[in-house]
Amino acid sequence: MERSKYPLYFSFPAVIVFLLFFITPTIIGIYYSFTDWNINADAIKFIGLENYKELFNEPRLKQAFINTLIFAAAVTLLQNAVGLALALLLNEKLKLRNLLRMIFFMPYVIAPLVIGYIFRAIYHPEHGIVNQFFGMLGIDFMVQDWLNDPRFALFTVIMTDIWRVAGFSMVVYLAGLQFIPKDLTESASIDGANYWTRFKHVVFPLLAPAFTVNVLLAMIGSMKVFEIVMVLTEGGPGYTTEVFYTYIRNTFSSGEMGYATAINMLLFVLVTLVGIPVLLAMKKREVEM
Amino acid sequence: MRSRKYSPLLLELLAICLAMLILIPFFMIFINSFKDIRESALFGLSLPSNWVFSNYEEVFNQDNLLRGFKNSFLLSALVVVSVNFFASMAAFVIQRRGGKFLQGVYLAFIMGLIVPVSIIPTIRLMDLLHIKGSYLSIIMYYTAVLLPFAVFLLVGFIKSVPRELDEAAILEGCGYFRLYFKIILPLISTVLVTVSIVVIVSVWNDFFGPFYLVTDSTKWTIVLQVFNFVTLYSTNWGVVFAFMIVVITPVLIIYLFLQRYIIDGLTAGSVKG
Question: CB–CB of B220/B175 below 8 Å?
C-alpha cells in the first residue's frame, strides 16, 4: 500500500498541541530572556544580554549549575546501581518475591512533594529516626544535622531521591532480565562460569536496552529535579543544594520574570547538550551489541 | 547443577531488610498521625501514648480535601484521554507514512522528551490566549509535556503491527479512520495502558505544573492542597501526617490492586520502546 495514502492530518492534533504549548513557549522564552520583564514594572523592555551578563556574574548560578550536575550524575549512577542490584536480587527464586517487588516500587507512585515532607521529619536533627537509629547503635559521628549542614545537605537530598526512584529502575531491569533465555545462563554455569563471570559476559550485555532506558530517563529526570529539593532544603543551607528549578522559583517569586526565563534557557541548553550525545551514544551502543 | 554461594534464605533476609527501609518511613507517618501535637513532633516509631483520632476529623473537615481529589481526578482523566488519542493517531501515521514532514515531527517529539519546559513563558502564553488558570490551560500543558514520551513509545510499538493488516482492511473497503479505530487501537491497547499509567502517575503527583499555572485555589489539585496544608498547619505534625495518610492511602490502594498491570505495563513498554 502506498505510504502517501495514509492521512497526514492524523498527526495534526498532536502537532498543534505540541507546537502551541511546548515549542511556542520555548521560542517566546528566548525573547523574554532578553527583556527586563518584571512583575512590578508596567512595560517589558528589550535589554539584550543584560540578564545573561548578570547571571554569569552571579555565584549562585555557578552553584546551581554544579549542584544540578552533581545531583544528576550521582542519581543516575546510584539509581542504576541500586536498581540493578535489586533486580538481580528479586530475580532469584525468593518466596516473597512478588510482595518485595511491589514494596520497592511503591515510593514511585507517591508524589515527590509528599515524600519530601516525610523525609524532612525523618532527618530532623534531634528526633528524626535517622539520628535516633545511629544514636541507638552508638555511632555518634553519624548523628548529623543532615539537611542543615552544608557538608551533607546535597548528599542527603540525593539519597532521598534514590530511595524514591530505585524501584523504578529495578522494574525496568527486571523486564530486561526476562528477555534473557534461561538456557544461556545455565549453559554458562555448566561450563563452569561463576555468578560474576556469567553476569559480566552473558547477563549484562543482554541488558543493554534496559540500561539505555534507565540511564536516559534518570539523567533527563534528575536534571529537572524540583519538588524534593524545594521541600527538603529550599536550596539551602546557603546555596549548597540550589538547583536550576529552585533558583527559577525564587526569582519567579520575587517577580523577576525575564531573569527567571534566562535561567530556564540555560537549563534548556545544558539538558540539550548533555542529553543529545547520550541519546546518540547509547543508541549506537545498543545496535552494536 | 547450579552451584550457589549464598543460600536463598540469606538472600530473602537481605531483601526483607532492604524492604524495611521503604516501609519504615510510611509506618512513621502512619503512627504519628494518631499522636497529639507534642508527641507527633517527636517523629518517633513508638505507639501513641493516647490515640488521637481527632487529627483525622480535622482533616476531613477541610473542604479543600474533597475538592483537591476531584480536581486531580478530573485533570488526570482528561489528560489520559487526550494524550492517548493524539499520540496514537500521530504515531500511526509517523510510522506508516513517514516522509520529511513526519520525520521532522518525530524528531521534534524526541527533542521534547529531553528538554525542559519553559514554564514562565508558558504562563505568559496562557495569558495571551485568555485561558490562564483554566482547566483547559493545565490540560493542554500536560498534554504537550507528555506527548513526546507517548509518541516515542507508540511509534516503536506500531512497528510490530504488520502492514499487511492495513492492506487487507483497505482492500475490504475500510477507511483510514475505521482502520485506526477498529484494528490499530485494539492491537496497541497494552501500550496504551502503559501510557495511561505513566500519564496518571505524572499528572496526579505533579506539583510543578499547577504551582505555576493554577492561581485559583478552587482548582488546586490534591498535591497543591498538601503544600498549602503543610504551610498552614506546620505546627501540628499529627494533623499534617493525618492529611498525608488520607492523600496517599487511595493511591496505595489503587496501586495494590493494579500493581500487576502497572509493573507489567511498564515492563512491556520500557523495553519494547
Answer: no
